[in-house]
Amino acid sequence: xxxxxxxxxxxxxxxxxxxxxxxxxxxxxxxxxxxxxxxxxxxxxxxxxxxxxxxxxxxxxxxxxxxxxxxxxxxxxxxxxxxxxxxxxxxxxxxxxxxxxxxxxxxxxxxxxxx
Amino acid sequence: xxxxxxxxxxxxxxxxxxxxxxxxxxxxxxxxxxxxxxxxxxxxxxxxxxxxxxxxxxxxxxxxxxxxxxxxxxxxxxxxxxxxxxxxxxxxxxxxxxxxxxxxxxxxxxxxx
Lengths: 115, 113
Prior knowledge:
The complex is a heterodimer. Chain A is mostly beta strands. Chain A is built from no helices and eleven strands. The N and C termini of chain A lie far apart (34 Å). By secondary structure, chain B is mainly β. Chain B is built from no helices and eleven strands. Chain B has strands at 4-7, 10-14, 19-25, 32-38, 45-51, 56-59, 62-67, 72-77, 86-93, 101-103, 107-112. In chain B, the strands form two sheets. In chain B, strands 2, 4, 5, 9, 10 and 11 form a six-stranded mixed β-sheet that branches. Chain B has a five-stranded antiparallel β-sheet with strand order 1-3-8-7-6, with no helix packed on it. Chain B is globular and about 45 Å long. Chain A binds chain B through residues 4, 31, 33, 35, 40-45, 48, 50, 55-56, 58-59, 91, 95, 98, 100-104, 106-109, and chain B through 6, 31-32, 34, 36, 42-46, 49, 51, 89, 93, 95, 97-106.
């Protein structure tokens, strides 16, 4: 595709609901990242995939957060039993290779609001 | 991990003036330093980056300088225009982990016409 695509663009969830956020990276990009961006803050690292392997999940805030990329392309970030503090923009980004010395290509993000 | 600090948090300049944003990092092994621009409600987009084998890089009105000894790098925008108004983020990778790029807290730049 032309760029990283994320859906939905906006999501409103009631506290306690589960949500699933989708990321479709640029075709052929090996590396995929999830970031969380709170209002007025910089993106905070959540997790990293190289193809289908989740190599780093140290940024996931709790065990309610789960990410997968089963076929090495599309990725899903799932948040169980959402809490108000989960409200943020969730950004997905991809890189063609696996070197960290490359710019991140971001999607437009999913704005999650937990009420 | 990597600790990235960015200053100032907000910056207002008159159109045509220059703007400078500074970042410091902690991981001495970091060797790639990108800058991203994020307009309201939009995705962060790379505007310029520098690798540690050079001290300065320019792209038209934008330049980045790097001081590896002091572990800081700066974004310079000359002849600012209203469309430069946005939030700017610096970033640095953590060499000890897989791809964990750490972002600064952002600088909201306002260019006053």
